[in-house]
Amino acid sequence: MNFLKVLFIVIFTVLFLIFVAQHAYYVKLNFLGITYEVPLFVLVLVSFAVGFLLPALYFLVKDIRQTAFTKSITRGISYLARGYPQKAEGELSKVSRRNEEIALILLKAIAERGEIYRGEEVDIKRDAGFVDAFLGLKLLRYRDYEKAKGYLLSALSKDSSNLLALKSLRNISFLEKDLEACIKHQESVLKLCEKWEKETQKRILSDILSYASESLPQQRKDLLEKALDLHRSFYSQAMWIKYMLEKEDVKEAKKQIEKAFTMGVHNQVLAILSQNEEHLTRIMDIIKEKEELINPDVLARIYIKLHLFTQLRPLMEKLSQPIKLMATAFESHREMDRSCGEMLQELYKPWVCSCGESYNNYLPMCEKCLTWGNITLRGV
Length: 380
Fold this sequence. Notes:
The chain crosses the membrane at residues 7-26, 38-61. The structure is a single chain. By secondary structure, the chain is mainly alpha-helical. Among the domains are: 2-66, no CATH class; 126-188, Serine Threonine Protein Phosphatase 5, Tetratricopeptide repeat, CATH 1.25.40; 194-292. Helices cover 64% and strands 5% of the residues. The strands form two sheets. A three-stranded antiparallel beta sheet has the order 4-3-5. Strands 1-2 form a two-stranded antiparallel sheet. A hairpin with a 4-residue loop joins strand 3 (351-353) and strand 4 (358-359). The chain is elongated, with a radius of gyration of 37 Å.
């Protein structure tokens, strides 16, 4: 069967060439003063061949380069995923000048080796701001705020919608207590973020506004009202109640505390309010009325703050060990024991982040791991 196919092709080719030879039309070509007579069909075939081969050669070379580029990326990512950052860097450095997205992977390989400062010196593409934002974020982790801020601002100058840069600048502003800048950056984050994280970003902005209300007294009421409109978190609610108590609007404060009990965030709210003895005195009737609903540790700390040491005894069996030691010390009539209780009270940090860092007072953002909303009340 194959022999017949080959025979058919040969016969067809021979007949075609005989037909062409019998009907050949010659054209004259002049090259370097010499005139040639060339069959027209040969000229057409050569033109077709040249027209086909030149683009084919161009795309062949391009395809070879693209294949090498893809292989370098694949090998680099493979090395990085398998725990070989130095080998990954070697592969990715070949292609990072052409593509900023690949430069990001190269920087990750460098960061894996703990050499992020060397990443500043690497010759890579930086036109879109991706690299600057990544360097800014990593330097923020190293607490190098000035350098981090420089890179993050550079990233925003190249792309004003870079969410990574905006979030990192927000974090730096919070750490530096530049709360007006922090609010501004978070408002931009909220405007640009995707739908799935809108509620989270609203909560963060609400907490920032609530936190800023104490540092910006002239705007305090407006900030707190805006915070409550955005997201009614336990922190925004506690700060609003605190503001109402300072304004001696006890009726509104008690109304909001009732809401906190309804929402199930009363322990966190009371823990924040327990920092001020005068505030606790004004809401003591609600505390006594609902003491069965209040976490024993929170209730004990309230009684200690108000020097109601006789109220501690019924709670003793329900208290956590640190609060139990504190309560026992304060319940004692010995001056030395009470001095120990005061020391324990100063050392005890009721708020703890998921990273393990603990705080005396609630903060919207953990200053160690730089996460938002992960600080919770011990035992609640």
